[in-house]
Specification:
Oligomer: single chain
Number of helices: 12
Bound molecules: pyridoxal-5'-phosphate
Shape: elongated
Strand content: 25-35%
Number of strands: 21
Distance between the termini: 48 Å
């Protein structure tokens, strides 16, 4: 399966055969651990569902753009989706050529658009008529033509968390799908623009296929109508959004999603593009942390204070996100119920409330699971806390792919 393989070794929990206590002894806590095998498995399941049908997986760098993770996906044949020029540069540094890079984003600056045109990226996913107009003028200034895909908003409820739903009319993303045909006609009239695709992305952490497939059908229907009008489209970009099982129960299988998208797009003959992030790297990541305090007073809640908090993993504070939290070595005794919190002076710095777990003591190692996506990338240095190291576990060995930040690293910007 696409999940990290956890097993119990003599010293406690092991990931893909590597005891995590060994990593803590070598590198300290907190730190991020990634299973290369889990990433390979998720990518392969999704990609191979398309067989020899024309398609490309554009890994969404926003989920995790640590260079070694990006290079791992490149080695598997992935292309990328960049949500800022910074991410475009990350892709170039990892060896992707411009024809493998999609550029998406709700508010691209003129500088970003000009750079994207000059690089000759595969396509720019455009969000509004105003952006198309700016892009046209910038392309003409460069005596160039910008390849564009229009992001359409199909007004479909992703039934995900409101903060990560993007496909409703009330969301800031894309253009209403019914306005798209006229906008494509306008693109056809502009000499600085070439329409290459229809793009849709209705949100993230979507846990049932139904909204994803409804959005896919809407994008395909639009593409068919545009082809009939003579718009020379090349692709339909179905965005990302496939959710994962944060509770360890059931989730969409990337292979099942891939097959369903293939069935939807096949009649068009157009290339299928996907922009998955979370489903490829989320289950591959684990945050390894240590208990620094345990607090309990009569009649009050019990608090377990970790050395990792919202500075390392923001999802619980940002979305109230649920993550499984487990001790590395399970102690004997009756389970306890406690709030599991970080060390940051904010009450929202709470990983879990009223969580049941085996009894623990100060100094015990704890893992927070499924943090490979929107984990390390959202880290901050609030309270001058250094960014944690990241470790790749591969073939029974581990290595540091990003070292722990030092105060000097942080202060270099202020010299
Ligand atoms: C345009 C776009 N594409 C792809 C993704 C990746 O989404 P996910 O990580 O849910 O697959 C996102 C993230 O929300 C996005 O905004």
């Amino acid at each position: 399966m696409s999940a990290t393989s956890f097993s119990t070794a003599a010293g406690g929990l092991a990931i893909d055969g590597v005891p995590v206590a060994d990593i803590a002894a070598g590198i300290g806590t907190p730190c991020y651990l990634y299973s290369a095998a889990a990433i390979r498995d998720a990518y392969t399941r999704l990609d191979s569902a398309f067989g020899d049908y024309p398609h490309a997986v554009h890994y969404a760098l926003k989920a995790n753009s640590t260079l070694e993770i990006v290079r791992l996906l490149k080695g598997l044949g992935s292309s990328v989706d960049a949500n800022s020029i910074g991410e475009v540069d990350i892709a170039l540094r990892c060896g992707f050529h411009p024809g493998q890079i999609m550029f998406t984003g709700v508010g691209k600056s003129a500088g970003e658009l000009a750079r994207a045109i000059s690089l000759g990226l595969k396509a720019i996913n455009v969000e509004s008529p105003g952006e198309l107009d700016r892009l046209d003028r910038l392309a003409l200034d460069q005596r160039s033509v910008a390849r564009v895909a229009l992001r359409v908003n199909p007004d479909i409820d992703a039934r995900s968390h409101p903060h990560i739903s993007t496909g409703l009319k009330t969301n800031k993303f894309g253009v209403p799908i019914e306005a798209a045909p006229e906008i494509f006609r306008e693109i056809q009239r502009r000499t600085g623009l070439e329409a290459v695709g229809v793009h849709s992305h209705i949100g993230s952490q979507i846990t049932t296929l139904e909204p994803l497939l409804r959005a896919a059908s809407a994008a395909v229907d639009l593409a068919v109508a545009l082809l009939a009008e003579g718009v020379p489209l090349r692709h339909v970009d179905f965005g990302g959004g496939v959710g994962i099982a944060y509770d360890g129960k059931s989730a969409i299988d990337p292979a099942e999603y891939g097959r369903a998208i293939l069935d939807t797009v096949r009649p068009t003959g157009l290339t299928a593009l996907l922009e998955p992030g979370r489903v490829l790297v989320g289950p591959a990541g684990t945050l390894l942390t240590r208990i620094v305090d345990v607090k309990q007073f009569a009649g009050a809640r019990q608090f377990i204070v970790l050395d990792a908090g919202m500075t390392e993993l923001m999802r619980p504070a940002l979305y109230g996100a649920f993550h499984r939290i487990e001790p590395v070595r399970v102690r004997e005794g009756a389970p306890i119920v406690a709030d599991i919190v970080g060390p940051v002076c904010e009450s929202t710095d709470t990983f879990a409330r009223d969580r049941e777990l085996a009894p623990v003591e100060v100094g015990d190692l704890i893992v927070v699971r499924d943090v490979g996506a929107y984990g390390a990338v959202m880290g901050s240095t609030y309270l001058r806390r250094p960014l944690p190291p990241e470790i790749l576990i591969d073939g029974g060995a581990w290595r540091v792919i990003r070292r722990r930040q030092t105060l000097d690293d942080m202060l270099r910007l202020e010299e």
